[in-house]
Write a structure and sequence with these properties.
Helix content is 32%, strand content 23%. It is of the alpha+beta class and 537 residues long.
Length: 537
C-alpha cells in the first residue's frame, strides 16, 4: 500500500466516523451489562406506543452546571432516549437549560422550583441554584416531576404518568384522619408533599363526611376510638365496591401529659371491621432490641428505647411488590398484627420486628425511667412480630345483615351494599402515631416532625402504588438496580474479606495484568521484527 492509498483510506475512515457521530442522536443504542438488566426499560414501557394515540412530549429541564457535577442527568437523558427509540415516533424528547433560555419564571409557574446545592471550586464553597425536572405533556394535559435527582424510580414515574395522561385517569387519594387533635394541613404536610410528587392528588375527607365514589384509594389514619358507624359503613361499602384502602391503626393510647402512660384504647368498630378482613390489631405494645435512641429526661443520657422499633430492610418481605425494595421503617409504640384465615382473602406479612422482639400486654409500662419493667413479658413473648400486612381478594362485608346506620339530622339514607363484593386490596399497619418523643417533640409514623425519615414515606408511596396500580406497572417499581456495593454485605467478616480481595485485585492484580499484556505485546513485536529481518536476509 503506497502513501496515497494510505491517505485516502485514512480520510474515508475519518469521514465515516464523523457521519456516525452526526447520526448517533437519531440512531440511539445502549448495551446493558448489569446483572438483571436494570438499565433497560421493561416490556411495559417499550410497548407504550400501543396505548398512545397521539404524541407525548417529554421535556427535561436540567442545568448544564449540574451535568458537570453529577452523572445522573446523563443517565436520565439516556433512559428517556430509550423511550423515544421504542415509541415509533409517539414520544418526543427535548432537553433544556432554564438558565440559558431565561425560563426561571416559567419554571415557577410549572411547579419546578430551583434547588440550591453546595459546590466546591478552587478550595472555596459556594451555593448555586440548579434545575432537574421533567414535564410530560399529552394533548392539553400535563404531568410534572419537579425533583428528579436519581434514577431509582425514573422508569416507573415516566411510564405511570404517561399512562395516566393517556387514559385520563387521575390518581385521587382520600385521607381520613381519625385523631381529632390532628389536622391534615398541620401534621401531614410532608406526607402530602411526598405523595403529590408521586403523582397523587390528595383529598382530605372529614370523619363525619362522605366518601366520594371517584377516589382511587383511601387512607384511614387512626380512628379506632373516634370513627362512628356512619363512616365505618361507608368504608366497608367502598371496599365492597372494589375500593383500595390503607389502614394505620392503634389499639393502645399513649398519654404523656402526666408522665409516660399507656392504656388500651376504645374501639368503636374500626379495628373489629379490619379484623374481619383478616388482620387483627392486638392490644399490646411491640418492643425490639433494634430500636431508636432517645435522651432520658433528667439524666440526659441516651438509651435505645425499645418502643421506637427500627425495622431493618432484611425484615421486609422481599417477595411482595410493596417491600421488594424495602429500605426499613421506624414505628413508635406500635401494635402487633395477627393474620387470620378469611375465605377468598390472602394475607401476607410485609415487615416484622427482628427475632428479638417481644410484647407488653399487661402493665404497658413505657416510662424510660422505669426501663427495668420493659422486659417483664420478654421471655414469654420473644420472637418476630408482624407490624404490617397486605390483604387481597374479595372481602366479607362487615355490615352485611346489619341495619344501615342513621345519623341525626340527615334525611337521606346511605346507599346499599353491593350484592357481590368486587376484588380489592387492603394494607394494615399497626401504628398510627401517638404522643411525643421525649427529646424531639411531636412525632408520628407519617407526620411532619420526621420529615427526614424517607423510609417511612417511601413505604407509604409503595403501598399507594400497590393499592392503585396494575401489577405490571408496579413490577417496574420493584425492579431493584444491582449496585454491587461492598457496604451492602451485612456480615462484617464477609464484608472485610471482600474489601481485602477488592483492594488486592485493584492495587496488584490489575496493574500486573496490564504490565504482563504490555510485555507480551512488546515481545511479540520484537519477534515479528526479527522474523521480517530474517526473511529479508
Amino acid at each position: 500500500m503506497n502513501k496515497k492509498q494510505t491517505l485516502i483510506i485514512s480520510a474515508l475512515s475519518l469521514a465515516i466516523i464523523v457521519l456516525l457521530l452526526l447520526i448517533s442522536t437519531r440512531l440511539w443504542f445502549r448495551a446493558d451489562f448489569s446483572k438483571n438488566k436494570s438499565w433497560t426499560i421493561s416490556a411495559v414501557s417499550k410497548n407504550l406506543s400501543n396505548e398512545i394515540p397521539d404524541q407525548v412530549r417529554i421535556s427535561y429541564f436540567v442545568s448544564d452546571k449540574l451535568k458537570t457535577l453529577y452523572p445522573f442527568p446523563e443517565e436520565i437523558a439516556d433512559i428517556i432516549n430509550e423511550y423515544v427509540s421504542y415509541s415509533g415516533g409517539k414520544i418526543s424528547f427535548v432537553e433544556r437549560d432554564p438558565s440559558k433560555e431565561n425560563l426561571e419564571a416559567r419554571m415557577q409557574e410549572l411547579g419546578f422550583p430551583a434547588q440550591r446545592i453546595r459546590t466546591m471550586e478552587k478550595d472555596q464553597t459556594s451555593f448555586i441554584d440548579v434545575y432537574s425536572g421533567i414535564l410530560i405533556e399529552y394533548e392539553t394535559r400535563s404531568e410534572a416531576l419537579p425533583f428528579v435527582f436519581k434514577t431509582d424510580t425514573i422508569e416507573y414515574d415516566l411510564t405511570s404518568r404517561i399512562l395516566a395522561l393517556v387514559r385520563e385517569k387521575e390518581k385521587l387519594l382520600g385521607v381520613i384522619i381519625g385523631d381529632s387533635a390532628k389536622t391534615f394541613e398541620r401534621e401531614y404536610q410532608y406526607m402530602h408533599q411526598y405523595l403529590s410528587q408521586a403523582g397523587y392528588t390528595i383529598r382530605p375527607i372529614s370523619p363525619d363526611g362522605e366518601i366520594p365514589d371517584n377516589i382511587s384509594l383511601l387512607f384511614v389514619l387512626g380512628g379506632g376510638a373516634t370513627l362512628d358507624d356512619w363512616m365505618l359503613y361507608q368504608i366497608d361499602r367502598y371496599i365492597q365496591l372494589g375500593g383500595k384502602a390503607y389502614f394505620a391503626l392503634n389499639s393502645t393510647e399513649i398519654n404523656l401529659n402526666n408522665g409516660a402512660q399507656a392504656a388500651k384504647s376504645e374501639d368503636k368498630g374500626l379495628l373489629a371491621m379490619v379484623a374481619s378482613y383478616g388482620a387483627q390489631t392486638e392490644s399490646a405494645l411491640v418492643l425490639d432490641r433494634v430500636a431508636l435512641p432517645i435522651i432520658v429526661p433528667q439524666s440526659f443520657f441516651p438509651m435505645n428505647y425499645p418502643f421506637y422499633v427500627h425495622v431493618l430492610p432484611e425484615n421486609g418481605n422481599a417477595a411482595h411488590p410493596i417491600t421488594a425494595k424495602f429500605t426499613g421503617a421506624d414505628l413508635y409504640w406500635a401494635n402487633p398484627l395477627s393474620l387470620k384465615e378469611v375465605a377468598n382473602v390472602e394475607a401476607t406479612p410485609l415487615f416484622t420486628t427482628t427475632e428479638f422482639g417481644w410484647l407488653e400486654s399487661e402493665n404497658l409500662a413505657i416510662d424510660p425511667q422505669q426501663s427495668f419493667l420493659f422486659t417483664a413479658e420478654a421471655d414469654a413473648t420473644r420472637g418476630e412480630k408482624v407490624l404490617a400486612a397486605a390483604l387481597g381478594g374479595t372481602f366479607p362485608a362487615y355490615w352485611r345483615g346489619k341495619p344501615k346506620p342513621l345519623r341525626e339530622g340527615f334525611t337521606e339514607e346511605l346507599p346499599p351494599l353491593p350484592e357481590e363484593a368486587a376484588p380489592s386490596r387492603v394494607v394494615v399497619v399497626g401504628n398510627a402515631g401517638a404522643g411525643f418523643d421525649f427529646s424531639m417533640g411531636n412525632i408520628d409514623f407519617l407526620n411532619n416532625s420526621f420529615a427526614g425519615e424517607q423510609p417511612n414515606l417511601e413505604f407509604l408511596v409503595q403501598c399507594a402504588d400497590w393499592l392503585s396500580n396494575d401489577d405490571e406497572i408496579l413490577s417496574i417499581r420493584s425492579r431493584a438496580p444491582f449496585t454491587g456495593k461492598l457496604d451492602r454485605i451485612i456480615d462484617e467478616t464477609e464484608r472485610l474479606a471482600a474489601y481485602s480481595l477488592s483492594r488486592i485485585f485493584c492495587v496488584f492484580v490489575m496493574p500486573l495484568l496490564v504490565l504482563a499484556l504490555a510485555i507480551a505485546l512488546m515481545l511479540r513485536r520484537k519477534k515479528e521484527a526479527a522474523k521480517e529481518i530474517e526473511n529479508a536476509l
